Amino acid sequence: MDWIAAAAARDTTMERIHSIWDSIWQSRKCKIK
């Protein structure tokens, strides 16, 4: 059952990266405008 923990960790990491990238993208759009 170790792969479930690995998949969960990967999902949370992807969500974290996505949220960080989203905030960066938002700040970029604000700077462009």
How would you describe this structure to a colleague?
With 33 residues, the chain is an all-alpha fold. Helix content is 94%, strand content 0%. It contains one helix and no strands. It has one helix at 2-32. The longest helix has 31 residues, at 2-32. The termini are far apart.
Secondary structure blueprint with pairings:
Layout: H1 2-32
From the N-terminal CA to the C-terminal CA, the straight-line distance is: 49 Å
Question: From the helix content, strand content and strand pairing, which structural class follows?
Answer: mainly alpha
Number of strands: 0
Task: Summarize the helix and strand pattern as letters.
Answer: H
Overall form:
rod-shaped
Radius of gyration: 14 Å
Mean pLDDT: 86
Percent in helix: over 70%
The residue ranges in which pLDDT falls below 50 over 5 or more consecutive positions are none
Please tally the helical runs, counting DSSP H or I stretches of 4 or more residues: 1
Estimate the strand proportion.
under 5%
Largest sheet: none
The quaternary state of the protein chains shown equals single chain
Features:
mainly alpha; 94% helix; 1 helix; 33 residues
In short:
The protein is mostly helical and 33 residues long. It has one helix spanning 2-32.
